[in-house]
Amino acid sequence: MAGEGPGRAHSMAGLYRRMDRPVRRVLPRSLLGRMLLIVLIPLLVTQGISLELFYGNYLKVVSRRMSGSVAADIVLTLDLLARYRSAGDRAWVMNQVRVRTQLDMDWEPGRRLAHTGSTHVLGPMDEDLADALDGSIGRPFQVDWIGDPQTVHIRVQMPDGVLDVGAPRKRLSVAPIWLFVAWAVGSTLLLFIIASLFMRNQIRAIRRLARAAELFGLGRDIEPIRPEGAQEVRKAAVAFNRMQERIFRFVAQRTAVLAGVSHDLRTPLTRLRLSLAMIPQAGTIDAAQFQSEVTDMVADIAEMERMIESYLSFARGEGAETPVAVDVGQLLDEVASAFRRAGGTILSVSVPRPVEGVLRPDAIRRVLDNLLQNARRHGGRVALSASHDARGVVICVDDDGPGIPRDRMEAVFRPFESGRDGGSGLGLTIARDIVRAHGGDIALRPSRLGGLQVRIVLPA
Questions:
Q1: How far is CA 138 from CA 117, 129, 143, 158, in A?
Q2: Which of 127, 211, 266, 328 could connect to 355 by a Cys-Cys bridge, CB 3.0–4.6 Å?
Q3: In this structure, are 168 and 211 located in the same domain?
Q4: How many domains is the chain built from?
Q5: What is the average pLDDT value for the chain, to the nearest integer?
Q6: Picking from 29-38, 115-124, 189-198, 417-426, which range would have the lowest pLDDT averaged per residue?
Q7: Is the dihedral of CA 122, 125, 127, 133 positive or negative?
Q8: Where a domain ends, among 127, 155, 174?
Q9: CATH code: domain of residue 415
């Protein structure tokens, strides 16, 4: 019994795999075709159930009752004709039946029926009338449904002739069955066409998104696509536009960095070349002068190492780290402690309520370290704070330094824009790159301490 469950699951999985391939061959390959099939099948099933309910229950019941009524009138007429055999009595009986029952009767003496049975029409009327006549008359009969479009002729074989009964169709048919079938088929086609038009519009938006993604993957410079269609398709289009914008910004930043590498490294390399050219020949060199030249070259090499490290850090990004749930308050405390040990001044760390966010802790720690070192380099003291708002986690870094003019608050995020005092000009660029990789944003504004505030917003 223990192995019954896994064995049964394995057999069901095998059956599913065997059935999956033939079903795939039958199903349309396009999304539009599959969506239309999903709409068409329920429509057909619904109309089929409606037709069966009407045709199989209501129409059959009414048809049996109407056929039984006509058969009863004919049986009553036959009984009267059998009792009253004179020509005058028969003429009177037929006249009364014609007036009272709307059945047109004609007596054909000496005639014999060539064949018996009923011609078939669409609907249950022919079978119900034949069953009613067969069960009540007990004589050979013939039913002609197609000879006259307005009248159904019922011919009953009598011993001395044939009784021809003309029954109006309205006494045997509720309504033309083809009209109901046409309504069912027509409504199905109409609903299917309307659904096709709506779905085509939705598929057009998906196709446009797929085409834009293909062109973007080929390196074409395309415009942002206009969100349209269903809400999910609109969200996909907006996400694609944002992705395209981030990739363009990513490529532009790294292109600018690569363009600036040769410019920034050329200066220390030129100084090194000059220093080497000015070193006196061996034997005539002064020890103090030589030591001075070596010190300058070591400083140039250290500057180049710092620049290269900045470039490599910027190029690496922080995409390899896995986002985890982080206590932001604890993270700020750790960053503040490390900054104090490095000689910086932290005025306060304010986290009124517990703040948690899903982020890459090492990457965010690096962002905060860059911001704190910038503040320290400009001689400012720092206050850290964190809170929640409608957009997510908000981290603010305030300092009381000289600040930045408002017209330069966006420009300093460009590579090499703010490089001075030994900096490479990539600190804020790297910070924005990391924050936007989290799906957030970073901005500068005047601080409540009189200097600069860096406001980081991260999704919760």
A1: 13, 14, 15, 11
A2: 328
A3: no
A4: 3
A5: 79
A6: 417-426
A7: negative
A8: 174
A9: 3.30.565.10
